[in-house]
Amino acid sequence: MEENKNPDIINKHDITCINCAGNLEFKPGTTSMECPYCGTMNKIKIDDKKRKEALREIDFLKFISNEDNVEAPKEENKYVKCQACGAETSVDAKVISSECPYCGTNLVLEKSQIKSLITPAALVPFDIDKDVAIESFHKWMKKLWFLPGKTKQYARPNKMQGIYTPYWTYDTNTVTQYRGRRGDDYQTTETYTDSDGETQTRTVTETSWTSVSGTVYLSFDDVLVVASDALPQKHVYALNPWDLNKLIPYDKKFLSGFKSESYDVDVKDGFEKAKNIMDDDIVSAIKRDIGGDHQTISSKNVDYNDITFKHVLLPLWLSSYKYKDKVYRFVVNGQNGKVKGERPVSVLKIILLVLFIAAIIAAIVFFTR
Ligand SMILES: [Zn+2]
Ligand SMILES: [Zn+2]
Predict the structure, then answer these.
(1) Model pLDDT, residue 12
(2) From ligand 1's centre to the CA of 26, what distance in Å?
(3) Tens of pLDDT along 174-189?
(4) Can you tell me the distance from the alpha carbon of 313 to that of 120, in angstroms, rounded to the nearest whole number?
């Protein structure tokens, strides 16, 4: 097969309509590309050999130390960096002007650059299209509490953009040695003097503490780390969990008509983020191991063994809406339509609710006296 020298164009015949030679675009929810001119669907072939390859993990330590020439395949693409927010997104050769999907700033396409980056092993194709994403946004809005009046009527999402977002996934077997204390509750009887000067007894709960130490073993599979700092991190992580069983081998045809973002968190920094994500589970495992009614952890030492990684792309719809001249960004999970994002808050409505609750409590106290 002839190698594709021009990264602007996927092997041209691959994305050309079999009927009218128009440029095809991937159609969410299918495994086909659709011709925007004549509507013909062109099926994307996924070969089985590639399927296995897509789930292949790369040895992390060997990769970062360049041992045994462990390399990840790379590919070149044209990206343009947003002057305002720093997000770097792919540039389509056909496009003559474009807006940053993250912040809406006009992109200076003359400044686009070709970058050589690790080729994604796999991707989850868009399952929901733009209309469904917009619908999900409105449903999300309807369910929000304490929105200022009229936000629901007036919040119109700006141009929705479908972005394949870069993620790293990590697998590792961890061994954690810890030291801490275990607290066991017991009941005891104490005597006290009441307000009339009489001696009384009552039951109190006390805790006896013992020093403990131990080892816990935890295996992690596909810890997902967002490899882009341009996105509102809190909201993107809130889109988890993804159904990674739907990962299919990376094929640029699925990107046709969409943008993709280049990663700006490298494999090594990504693993540091993965450690933070795994930490919650490790702490819970230690507490279970300690047992008792209370647990404190004074020290823990985690060994990460057999670390492997792969690079995957996941589908996000990005947009923002304006309310009183302020821009609120939101993200939609392109696989299941889950929405997370920034939102205005009506302080007045919260104060009213607090006053209302206070009034109810006051009424209860008044009438039950
Ligand atoms: Zn066509
Ligand atoms: Zn931007």
Answers:
(1) 53
(2) 13
(3) 999 999 999 999 999 9
(4) 7
CA 326 / ligand 1 centre spacing (Å): 41
Q: Residue 46 Cα, ligand 2 centroid: separation in angstroms?
A: 34
pTM: 0.84
Q: How far is the CA of 272 from the centre of ligand 2 (A)?
A: 25
pLDDT digits (tens, 9 = 90+) for 228-273: 888 888 889 999 999 999 999 999 899 988 989 989 899 999 999 9
Task: Look up residue 16 and give its DSSP letter.
Answer: B
| Contact criterion met (CB below 8 Å) for 181 and 318 | no
Average pLDDT over residues 138-143: 87
Q: What is the pLDDT of residues 284-301, one digit of tens each?
A: 999 999 999 999 999 999
Q: Contact, 310 vs 168, CB < 8 A?
A: yes
CA angle 1, 72, 9 (to 5 degrees): 40
Cβ contact 129:29 at 8 Å: yes
Q: Is 30 helix (H, G, I), strand (E, B) or coil?
A: coil
The closest ligand to the CA of 320 turns out to be 2
User: If you measure from the C-alpha of residue 21 to the centroid of ligand 1, how many angstroms do you get, rounded to a whole number?
Assistant: 6
Rounded to an integer, what is the distance from CA 349 to the centroid of its chain?
Answer: 31
Given a cut of 50, is residue 112 above it in pLDDT? yes
In this predicted structure, what is the pLDDT of residue 5? Answer: 42
Instruction: Yes or no: say if 275 and 165 are a contact pair by the CB < 8 Å rule.
Output: no
Per-residue model confidence as pLDDT tens digits over 304-324: 999 999 999 999 999 888 888
Instruction: Kindly report the three-state secondary structure assignment for every residue of 199-262.
Output: EEEEEEEEEEEEEEEEEEEEEEEEEEEECCCCCCHHHHHCCCCCCHHHCEECCHHHHCCCEEEC
CA 69 – CA 64 distance, rounded (Å) = 10
What span, in angstroms and rounded, lies between the C-alpha atoms of 275 and 48?
Answer: 33
Phi-psi label, residue 337: left if phi above 0, alpha if psi -120 to 50, beta otherwise: left
Which pair of tokens denotes residue 246? 């739907």
